[in-house]
Amino acid sequence: LATVNTASERSADAARQTAEFGQELVHLAEEQRKVVSQFQSSAVRGFDFDAAREAHLAWKKRVADFLDGKSSLTQSQAVSHHDCLLGHWYYGDGQQKYGTLREFRAIEAPHAELHAAIREIVQLKQQGKMVEAQALFEKLEPLSKKIVTMLDDLEQNIAAESTERHAPQVAAVD
């Protein structure tokens, strides 16, 4: 009886360990899926959303330094919304790949507005109209934040679509 009891305990221990290993394997597989999804998402995107976000957030500092006389900024440096990093992608690969997405199309108007405001600030300062230039500068922050939020939304949408396309199909078990 003692031998049967010992064997039963060993069997129960082995079953617990097997269950724990199984749970660990499920956890590791999920972590691996997340990592693979990030690489797939990056490859599918073909665009550095982080760089675009940082570039647009940097415009506020660049224009502030210009208004404070710490740096110069010309009309040609205040490029159009077609010629910046985001614009090149938006009107090229981005349009081809994601032009049908609502989140993608929503970026164009505030992006164009941001660049138009920057060009106008440069012009106003060159004309000696600092009060007007400073007032217009105050509109850059919300515009820039809006663009960054829209980029976040677009990136999440693209990543979600990519994950859905690449997710393994699991058959239902009755």
Give the DSSP E fraction (strand runs of 2 or more residues).
under 5%
* Total helical elements: 7
Oligomer, anyone? single chain
Helix/strand/pairing class, anyone?
Answer: mainly alpha
Number of strands: 0
Alpha carbon gap, first and last residue: 39 Å
Which overall shape is indicated by the principal axes computed on the Cα atoms?
elongated
Radius of gyration over alpha carbons? 27 Å
Low-confidence stretches: 35-45
Q: N-to-C SSE series?
A: HHHHHHH
Average pLDDT: 80
In helices, the fraction of residues equals over 70%
Largest sheet: none
In short:
By secondary structure, the chain is mainly alpha-helical. It has helices at residues 2-45, 49-67, 85-98, 102-105, 108-126, 130-137, 140-166.
Q: What would you note in describing this structure?
A:
There is one protein chain. The chain has 174 residues and is mainly α. It is built from seven helices and no strands. It is elongated. The protein starts with a helix and ends in an 8-residue tail after the last helix.
Task: Please write out the topology.
Blueprint: H1 2-45, H2 49-67, H3 85-98, H4 102-105, H5 108-126, H6 130-137, H7 140-166
List keywords for this structure.
78% helix, mainly alpha, 7 helices
